[in-house]
Amino acid sequence: MTYQLNEKVINLAPYETEKGKYKVVLNAGESFLPVHPDMKKDILSAVRKVAFNRYPDPEAAKCCKAFADYYSVEPALVTAGNGSDELIGLILSGFFSKGEKVLVAEPDFSMYEFYADEAELELVRYQKAGDYRIEPEALVRLAKEEHCRGLIFSNPCNPTSQGLKKMPLRALLKELPEVLVVIDEAYMDFWNQSLINEAEEFDNLIILRTSSKAVGSAAIRLGFAVCHKKLTKALQALKSPYNVNAMTQAAGAAIYKHQDILKEAQREILAARGFLAGALLKLEAEWKGTLYEFHLIPEPKTNFVVLCFNKGKNNEVYGFLKKKGILVRCFPDFLRVTVGNLEENQKFLDALRTLQ
Fold it and tell me: What digits encode the pLDDT tens for the residues 224-236?
């Protein structure tokens, strides 16, 4: 007899990322901006002071305080994690019991399903409407019909770039008082419909944030949960005592203190998004009725845009761009293109135009 893996893991495959070198990398939702010199100086200074022979602060207090100050929330409502991925895993495994139902709105961030399966939860799937919009009334109705204990979705959505505004979200939370609603606001720095400053008003709401997008610090793997003190207490009890390493804490505390630099970075990314979306709208009109006509999902709320080509053409266009040294993200029904700097955006557009 030999050891047998259980059914949960026997068919699992590691998460795959694109390997190889590309001239232009627009596939991961990262910021195209390098760390500002003033910010980098403070990060390096903070890391040099880390006591490497000691465990990190289990509460990540300085880091959480800097984050809380930046978003004008109470530090007591903030929990830090190794990216928001760790927090998603903790929430789905800790706040729900095996077999309970959790509602997701598809398409959405793939890791919700991964961690739900790991926790042996039953997923209920809501299919989004045209242009990947969520209809809040339908979502609430499905949650009630299926007796769901949880609801998790990204807002704005990764990978569709669309989102729900504050008013329908507030109504949804009030309609589902017995459902834990987890709103992943990883891309909310690019929109203005956050509920982060209202988190304490709802005892069934967890807001997730990350430093990997607008903050431009994907390398340090730092995320945050903001929620009612009752939920915060439970989440901090669930996490491991020293979950965020001391170097990440030091870097995070230094980064979030540079509020002006972070705000300026947001403006630069939004300006680049405006350029890219505007150019693609013109190209969409020019290519209408051709072999490679596409639809640009309107009014993106993220740092990426979404292109829907004719059926079967997404993979073809994706492969064509790869051969040109340009990497985007391919989904079954669309391509997701992260906004780059001016040169990167132009190279992408020039390559795309050679399709015709």
Answer: 999 999 999 999 9
